[in-house]
Design a protein that fits this description.
Layout (H helix, E strand, L loop, with lengths): L4 E5 L4 E5 L2 E7 L2 E2 L11 E3 L4 E6 L3 E7 L4 E5 L6 H9 L4 E7 L5 H12 L5 E5 L12 E7 L11 E6 L9 H12 L7 E5 L7 H14 L3 E5 L5 H10 L2 E5 L10 H15 L4 E6 L4 E4 L9 H14 L23 E8 L5 E11 L4 E6 L7 E10 L4 E4 L3 H5 L2
Amino acid sequence: MQPARRVELQRGQTLLMKGPASARCVAGSVDVFGYRPTSRELMVARPWKTLPIHALEDSVLEVSAGPGSSTELLDFDAIPREWRELPEKLGKEFRVAFLGRVDSGKTSFLLLSLNSRVGEGPVTVVDLDVGQPELCPPTTFAVAEARAPTYRLSSVNAAAVYPFGFTSPSYAISRSVELIRRHMGRLAESERVLLNLDGWVDGEEALHHKASIVRALRPTDVVAIEAEVSGELREACDEVGAEVHRVERPPTVPRRDKEERKRAREMGYASALRGASLRQTVKSWVTYYPVNSDDPIRDPELYLLEVMKDIETRSLDIGLDLPEDYGTEPDLGRAGAGLLSYVTDEEGKVLGLALLVGFSRERNLVRLLTNHQGPIRHLRLGAVVLSQGFEELCVVSPPALRTGS
């Protein structure tokens, strides 16, 4: 970070601060997504994230900027009035789904709504955006209970995290809906819920997926940002009695390109696997599952071999030495890679992430790169191959995933 510099804001102005950067309000009063930081409280914008710091009165900030960060001073509130007013119009009990394309501002609107209503009591937050989640690692979804306002959703601790295994529901649409129904069914007991949906909204399959989620979770309100609610999705909203609020995406919401979103996911993997080391455990002590089925994998070595064959078939050069026959043990570790997997409990909740590196048939061992310290009894094998530096290399589709067996 560079040395802090003073930035003076007049009442009504907004400083758009793109990370990596941080700021403190040393004089005056500011608002960030409806959250009012205390005097000298540090506000951190992570890489590829932007904080709109709005001056409620003449204020002074101390801003520290990192490589690639930027700031922009606006003479107006970056958050539209309709965004600020809508949360106040919700009923005492609500279940709001936020719908929109990638980088349309769904998380920002959810955060604004949370800060507007959490003072009245706890709010359940559900993060179903498996590609760019805030509450949990990429390829998973989570539920949390917020009891206080915050300027960033990632500060809310998830009560439960569940594996999906892919970076988008488009890879396994029916499985996505099945898991949401199964794990989010208990939301019926919650009176105040905010649901962050993924950004896949274009095309008939995407609308069918969102309609299925609406029918499963029965929101009272659907906030559609820069997105049409039509066809089957509109029918689903009408069926459950959800009021649709179509709002515009503010021009100040930044767009990230595909590479920036990938790098953001990689930061999520690295954070979840921080401090990971190579661990060996007895292979036969573990029950293995594919991400798209609850039926155990009979031969996890063969499954990993099929993953490697899929990589080779698509000519993805990651330095794999594919065995010529099944007599040689499959090993992603030789390429400095691993298959993203999930250590779970008996109920399917994620206890920790792991990279499946390989097997030792002679010693009856499985090798994992993980920071999970407890026993490993259930391991769900995902579809994303990462380098051991947590770079996202590819999404695989071995026969077990294509057939659901």
